Amino acid sequence: MTFYNSDQSMHSHLTSLLNKYEEEGRPGLKDSIAITWIRYTEVNPSPCSGLGTGWSEDKLLYPASVVKIIYAIAAEAWIQKELIPDNEELRNALKAMVADSSNDATSLVIDLLTGTTSGPALTGDRWNAWQIQRGLINKWLNSLCWEELNKINCCQKTWEDSPYGRERNFYGIGNTNRNALSTLATARILEGIMTDALVSPPACRRTKKILSRSLDLIQRKNDPENQVDGFIGEGLPQGTRLWSKAGLMSQARHDAAWSCSPDGKAMLLIIFSQGQERAKDTFLLPAIANELFHYHLYNEE
Predict the structure, then answer these.
(1) What does the pLDDT read at residue 301?
(2) N or C terminus: which one in the chain shows less Cβ crowding within 10 Å?
(3) In a 3-state reduction of DSSP, which class is residue 267?
(4) pTM for the structure as a whole
């Protein structure tokens, strides 16, 4: 059971597309990619009203910076409950975390959400208490009681290099406690934000503002780390509105995007691709997005 209405024709189209790109020189593509694709018929969609399909969408993968979407809306939940102060520093950090994908800003946000800080290794009761505090974001996600969020893990900071000290220990032996998301879980969270259905409508509107991306070619040229080129946004036609968060590292190229055509047709697309070859592939995500968006525009539900 998914939160969208499954569409067999969309599934056939997506499968054919993956077969095509696999045959064009990407052996093993279907084993190294996960996708959730949802289309909406309403100009202002209500939650759980879309038609959709997926590929390996329940598979838990390291989400890289895509997890920052969850930290952003969690911060809004904490603010609403008056657990953390709503001040200029926090707002600047949330914008930098999502719009610019700043890991330093992410560190501050997680410290505020969980009451923890990074540093040397801890032991005994202090270490146990620290780990419990770091689980607060997962505890909040569990409180939503959304089946799609089962087994996901969102408790780690993001790094330019790698964690050290207590952060390294918190990853667990063999990195068993790394962040883990599925495209389905990511889609459920992003849909909740974009339909004003998570935390509160004002909280969603603030989060949408920092997720907004420009497709303007000049702006993109002036910002090489625009999170559009090489990702879903590059495959969308000019005039499309876009809200997204990309994730890129040596072993992953991910994107989570909500797009809206000039006539108001909304589409939600989450793509996680893993492995060194996928991480270097700047063609694949835009190409898939372009094909799926055109299907979305020109096929009646």
Answers:
(1) 56
(2) N
(3) strand
(4) 0.98
